[in-house]
Amino acid sequence: LTLTKKKSLRNHPIKISFPSSTQTLISASTTPFDSIEMSQKEKAMEAIKDAFRALRKRHILEEGAHGPAISALSKPMISQGSEWKEKTEKLELELQQCYKAQSRLSEQLVIEVAESRSSKASLQDKELLINDLEKDLCQTREECTRLQEEVVEKTKTLDLLISENKEVRSHLEEMTNRAQKAESENKMLIDRWMLQKMQDAERLNEANALYEEMLAKLKANGLENLARQQVDGIVRRNEDGTDHFVESTVPSTCSHRIHAHEGGCGSIVFEYNSRTLFTGGQDRAVKMWDTNSGSLIKSLHGSLGNILDLAITHDNKSLIAASSSNNLFVWDVNSGRVRHTLTGHTDKVCAVDVSKFSSRHVVSAAYDRTIKLWDLQKGYCTNTVLFTSNCNAICLSIDGLTVFSGHMDGNLRLWDIQTGKLLSEVAGHSSAVTSVSLSRNGNMILTSGRDNVHNVFDTRTLEVCGTLRASGNRLASNWSRSCISPDDEYVAAGSADGTVHVWSISKGSIVSTLREQTSPILCCSWSGIGKPLASADKNGYVCTWT
């Protein structure tokens, strides 16, 4: 109990406070008594006594106040042990909860610290980015300022150019008016000059026509006389520049099979009195072949469309091709260069022929329903004939004055090429005429039609002197070309099944059937020296037959 009271007294120390008057008296008592009067000493002693009495009262009061505590402490320690144990367990539970709460708060604090660090790093990066953007903004502002200055300068320059442009336009309008006036005057002068030249050309053409007519008549008379002369199967002409050929043989063997063109070969022609063959195809090329060896001699290029027909002058110097590009192309055979491009047709040119005695005049037919006569020396058209039905084939007479034309309506028509008048018309076929070929002596003309019939006409009377047909012979296209042998004894024509049939004109029957090609035959041509016979098909292959 004494220990408990001491602890209680330690926990509750006694504080003694003196009144202010007493403190004054005590402080005054420290001063020397020599300087203080006796009355003051008595007052001081009384004050001291009063202070002791107050202190005792306070001590009594404090003892009364601490009485319950002292009685409580005096109870047995065993009775409070259970209560303290319960309180201790509660406090331990609370302490554990506090530790758990503290661990959660620590984890959250760690997370928040990490987030704070990342936010701080991101903030630093953004501050750096802001600094960079501010620098870029400053540069952009400077650039904008510079561009604004340039815009101002360019605007001033543009205003200056606009003003200069207006002046130039006004000057250009003035010069254009002058040029138009000069052009109209020039055109008038050119028209007058062309009219004069046309008049001169007409006079010259009349003179040339008269000269050629006289020469053709003389040569025609000579041919008629020479055609009657036949010794040992050899026919000759004794005049200068004439041709000579032997009797034609019936072909039976394929000597060469040549892949001449890609996409099909639509036209072939031999040189006069030669075994050299020209071929034209859908690859827009014309090729020159040696039929003795089957080798390529040269290629002629320059056509802008498919080659639909070929013709060669009698001196073998110029080759003319009819093209699907609405033009005719004239090559120099020796140099291989294009001499002329004849323009004037408005649709594809499907047929062409050359005068038998003159290397100057060419006749052509196109799907614009016109036949045109061309002068190769001048390089332009000299006459045009109009008709109603499309023409597929064409050829010139021996004298070069009459044109034979085969049409889609199945008719054979004769035209005076100089006047353009229709001389005669014969209904030779029930379907389109695909080929027109003149015999060497000029007395017969062969026509082939889509009705798969081949008619031989007498050119003097236009009467049919022979009709040739075969059960397996079917023409493959509207431009399937047949031909007559140089001795005027045989006719050769191709079929859609790839065969070539050879007829005897005098007998009217087939004397040979040639089988080597597998695709439709488009054209046949016989060499002027009697052999070989050539045929071309739709796959671009050319076969020579002997």
TrEMBL record:
SUPFAM superfamilies: WD40 repeat-like. Residues 80-205 form the Autophagy-related protein domain. The keyword Acetylation does not apply. The keyword Transcription regulation does not apply. The lineage of its organism: Eukaryota, Viridiplantae, Streptophyta, Embryophyta, Tracheophyta. Pfam families: ATG16, WD40. This is Autophagy-related protein 16 domain-containing protein. Residues 130-221 form a coiled coil. Gene3D superfamilies: YVTN repeat-like/Quinoprotein amine dehydrogenase (2.130.10.10).
